[in-house]
Amino acid sequence: MTRLWHWTQVLYLLSCLLSVSWATKGNILSFENTAIVRTVELGGSLVAVTTTYAIQAVTGDTSEYIVALSEAEHGVTSWIEATLKGSVDPLQLKPLGYKHDYAAHLYSITLPKVPVKGETTSLVLETVQTKATYPWPPSSPQGGEQLLKYESDLLVISPYVTSVQRTKVRGPASIRSFTTPEGLGAFTDEPTAVQAGSVVTYGPYKNIPASANPFFAEESQKRILIHYEFNEGVLTVVKLQRAAEISHWGSNLNIENQILLRNTGPTLKGHFSRLDHQFQGHYHSASAQSIRSVPMLLPAGINTPYYYDLIGNVSTSKFRPSRSGKSRTLQFSYLDLRPRYPLLGGWNYSFTLGWDAPLSDSAKWDAKTGRYIIGVPYWTPITGSYVEEAEVKIVLPEGATDVEVFPPFNPLTVNRTVHTSYLDTTGRPAIILTNTRITDRHTGVIYVTYKVPFTAHLKKPIAVAAATFSVFVLALAARRVDPRIHK
Amino acid sequence: MSESYSHIAELHRTLPAFSPYVPATALPYLAFFLLLGTFILGFYFTTLPKDTIPIREVSVASAASILAGFGVVSLFCSSGVNV
């Protein structure tokens, strides 16, 4: 069925054709989406969305393809990456900001080359969403089931015409209910939603006009809601403060994380029964609502890990160092971190986790420029979780100069300060990066380059020597003072 | 920034690893012998005569202080406080 166009929409589309609002050579006629398939993998704290665009170059005059995210979708998107289908190398993705004419946030993807007219390509856009799910019911008794809700737009919007699109929503376990949208007769004659096991398929929807505009958002877009069961802990790192301290004298990199964890599943209804908790562990499968342990993969080659909270050392955890070998790049040290108490819904737990690692594993020396290059991982990801507020502080050796920072993704703020620690006189330069909503896909490394003159390494021994010499001077003077009482 | 992230990442991947002036495994032994020297010189300082111009005392004190400087830094690093 062909959709009848309102005259205002026709005028709007003509204005888009004439304007170059995203400042590129192309416009909404440059490409056509022959097919869009979106797959939504539902999780606890995180939802992974993979959208495959099968595109065809209509004019063959630009290599910039524009994707659009609605305001709601952009608000929950924390990580976004575009690749060609079958390739692992990410394409250049540039955010263009919110465009009122399109009622959407636009992103420009640069294809490897300008496609010729009629050429087809497949793009894969991967996003990770945070705060897109919420527990429903919001509270649950101990041992009760854990159900979450996920809301999203039904149709993938695009500034280009789309021949056909469908959306598949895949739940980790059973899907209790899902929205069956109405009023989509313009795009389909078939049933709009079909469930097969834990997968709900919406579509196919055909002959969708350029949908990134306010008219489409108001008249044709629908919202869908999926209510599903989630059988693992819903964990969120509310706050992460990571400090990486570099020591040239000790040839050591110390990384210390202060973490505030929260179980963001349904809050506990009623009281906590230790007896029921013990029975669940022994006789039944552990309730998803209760988080007993957090597995973490720590870097290879680390030693002396420590884990304590406000009360003191926490011994309820298991650490397995990485195997020794020639190559440690793909090996990890395994830590099965167990909080002092199980985390029920709505409960928090704060602790400090740190370790030492040989500096030679992370720092390199560039003899040509006389500088050191250190790589510090942004955070140690907890699978299925994200960080609401992250702060990474990198403390360089005393006397470091020509400091430059290369973060893997744009931080919210970058500040430089001076950190004073043991045996310091002038203090150590420190760089503080902050960010929000860091997911387990934010696995990048922060690179810092710096120079440390040889004389700067002598600051500490000279400081201690000066203090010791002052003691000797006092002794020298004291020896010459006669405290005896004379007649 | 004048260099790109990918360039720095490639440099980091290919450049030789950091190597300290003093190997970390030698620090405990260095700390022991340097501090032993400090205490010996400190004791010797107490036995020196009180000269009008304390050249010998200042010399011994200076040597002991230098040994103490490097010895304490080595001791800190050996004890796990990597300064």
From TrEMBL, chain A:
<feature type="transmembrane region" description="Helical">
    <location>
        <begin position="461"/>
        <end position="478"/>
    </location>
</feature>
<dbReference type="InterPro" id="IPR007676">
    <property type="entry name" value="Ribophorin_I"/>
</dbReference>
<comment type="function">
    <text>Subunit of the oligosaccharyl transferase (OST) complex that catalyzes the initial transfer of a defined glycan (Glc(3)Man(9)GlcNAc(2) in eukaryotes) from the lipid carrier dolichol-pyrophosphate to an asparagine residue within an Asn-X-Ser/Thr consensus motif in nascent polypeptide chains, the first step in protein N-glycosylation. N-glycosylation occurs cotranslationally and the complex associates with the Sec61 complex at the channel-forming translocon complex that mediates protein translocation across the endoplasmic reticulum (ER). All subunits are required for a maximal enzyme activity.</text>
</comment>
<keyword id="KW-0732">Signal</keyword>
<comment type="pathway">
    <text>Protein modification; protein glycosylation.</text>
</comment>
<dbReference type="GO" id="GO:0018279">
    <property type="term" value="P:protein N-linked glycosylation via asparagine"/>
</dbReference>
<keyword id="KW-0256">Endoplasmic reticulum</keyword>
<keyword id="KW-0812">Transmembrane</keyword>
<comment type="subunit">
    <text>Component of the oligosaccharyltransferase (OST) complex.</text>
</comment>
<protein>
    <recommendedName>
        <fullName>Dolichyl-diphosphooligosaccharide--protein glycosyltransferase subunit 1</fullName>
    </recommendedName>
</protein>
<dbReference type="Pfam" id="PF04597">
    <property type="entry name" value="Ribophorin_I"/>
</dbReference>
<keyword id="KW-1133">Transmembrane helix</keyword>
<dbReference type="GO" id="GO:0008250">
    <property type="term" value="C:oligosaccharyltransferase complex"/>
</dbReference>
<comment type="similarity">
    <text>Belongs to the OST1 family.</text>
</comment>
<feature type="signal peptide">
    <location>
        <begin position="1"/>
        <end position="23"/>
    </location>
</feature>
<keyword id="KW-0472">Membrane</keyword>
TrEMBL record, chain B:
<comment type="function">
    <text>Subunit of the oligosaccharyl transferase (OST) complex that catalyzes the initial transfer of a defined glycan (Glc(3)Man(9)GlcNAc(2) in eukaryotes) from the lipid carrier dolichol-pyrophosphate to an asparagine residue within an Asn-X-Ser/Thr consensus motif in nascent polypeptide chains, the first step in protein N-glycosylation. N-glycosylation occurs cotranslationally and the complex associates with the Sec61 complex at the channel-forming translocon complex that mediates protein translocation across the endoplasmic reticulum (ER). All subunits are required for a maximal enzyme activity.</text>
</comment>
<feature type="transmembrane region" description="Helical">
    <location>
        <begin position="26"/>
        <end position="46"/>
    </location>
</feature>
<comment type="similarity">
    <text>Belongs to the OST5 family.</text>
</comment>
<feature type="transmembrane region" description="Helical">
    <location>
        <begin position="58"/>
        <end position="81"/>
    </location>
</feature>
<comment type="subunit">
    <text>Component of the oligosaccharyltransferase (OST) complex.</text>
</comment>
<keyword id="KW-1133">Transmembrane helix</keyword>
<keyword id="KW-0472">Membrane</keyword>
<dbReference type="GO" id="GO:0008250">
    <property type="term" value="C:oligosaccharyltransferase complex"/>
</dbReference>
<dbReference type="Pfam" id="PF05251">
    <property type="entry name" value="Ost5"/>
</dbReference>
<dbReference type="GO" id="GO:0006487">
    <property type="term" value="P:protein N-linked glycosylation"/>
</dbReference>
<protein>
    <recommendedName>
        <fullName>Dolichyl-diphosphooligosaccharide-protein glycosyltransferase subunit OST5</fullName>
    </recommendedName>
</protein>
<keyword id="KW-0812">Transmembrane</keyword>
<dbReference type="InterPro" id="IPR007915">
    <property type="entry name" value="TMEM258/Ost5"/>
</dbReference>
